[in-house]
Amino acid sequence: MDILIFCKALSDPTRIRLIHILDRHELSVNEIVAVMGMGQSRISRHLKILTDAGLLSCRRDGVWAFYGVPSEGSGRNYVTAVREWLRQEPELEADMVRAAEVLEARRKSTSRFFDTIATEWDRLRLEILGTFDLNAALLERAGKPGLAVDLGCGTGELLRGLAARARSVIGVDYSMEMLAEAERRFRAEGIEGDFRLGAIEHLPVANGVADLAVISLALHHLPDPEGGIRDAARILAPGGVLLLADFDRHEKEFLRERFGDRWLGFAEETIRRFLDGAGFELMELETFTLPSSLRLHLYRAVRRV
């Protein structure tokens, strides 16, 4: 009986803490060790018990392993059933604070990387994209929105094209140097744009104001990619469009070091699940094979009314 297996697996204070943390965040073993303040061997033993019981799943991403509660199945249903009980335990909240600190450290590490390569970013992108014009592909699908928001706008190249189509544009990035470079280019060309420093998972944009949101090759840099898609839904008006471009799952580990990638792409079914969970209806999906042999998925989704 599943219920006996689940209850037995959760009958330990450390494993209760782990479920409470990993129900909210998918973390690597090293990150879990940092949050829990325990040795890796002890943490690994408890993770194995919970994974064997079906209360956790392990996702491999290159040489890294990430743990979280399964997205479906009886294990997910059990965790959902006990979630409110766990959230009423005040002593578990300290773990949430530490988990937030770990995610913020992820974010700052990415920001520091992009701060150092801001002026070189357009050239570096060509190493991956080659002759494929991703911005043109996105602009073909952008329509003529009222307000367009580029999430992870970088140096503003895509935003320049959006500014020619939309009544107004906002560029959001977590790298101050990237934003400064984008603003410099806009001023030099006399283009109007609103640039805001912030994380894609916590956008500095009001609810329901945007007609178009674009996440172009930014999702794989996020500490919480699913959270990024959820917040994109929040800022879109009902019927608003999300254009999302990112790599298919791959094993090119060197991209972490060379380009600051956090995730080695995303399987199509993973993005479909993220979109559906955030309230989007997928309208179009195209896949392109890049000169670098990476496969790139381009999704067009509409926020449900």
CATH architecture label of the largest domain: 3-Layer(aba) Sandwich
CATH top level assignment of the largest domain: Alpha Beta
The percentage helix is: 40-55%
Strand order of the largest sheet: 6-5-4-7-8-10-9
Secondary-structure element pattern, one letter each:
HHEHHEEHHHHEHEHEEHEHHEE
Q: Strand content of the residues, in percent?
A: 15-25%
CATH superfamily caption of the largest domain: Vaccinia Virus protein VP39
Mean of residue pLDDT values:
92
Looking at the structure, what is the overall shape?
A: globular
What is the radius of gyration computed over CA atoms, rounded to a whole number of angstroms? 20 Å
Termini separation comes to 41 Å
**Helix tally?**
13
Tally of separate domains: 2
Folded structure, characterized:
GO terms for molecular function: DNA-binding transcription factor activity; S-adenosylmethionine-dependent methyltransferase activity. This is ArsR family transcriptional regulator. InterPro entries: ArsR-like_HTH, HTH_ArsR_DNA-bd_dom, Methyltransf_11, Methyltransf_Superfamily, SAM-dependent_MTases_sf, WH-like_DNA-bd_sf, WH_DNA-bd_sf. It comes from Desulfobotulus alkaliphilus. The protein has a seven-stranded mixed beta sheet, with helices on both faces. It starts with a helix and ends with a strand. Helix 11 packs across helix 13. The protein is globular. The model has no long low-confidence stretch (mean pLDDT 92). It has two domains: 87 residues, Winged helix-like DNA-binding domain superfamily/Winged helix DNA-binding domain (Arc Repressor Mutant, subunit A, Orthogonal Bundle); 185 residues, Vaccinia Virus protein VP39 (Rossmann fold), CATH 3.40.50. The chain has 13 helices and ten strands. It is α/β, with parallel strands linked by helices.
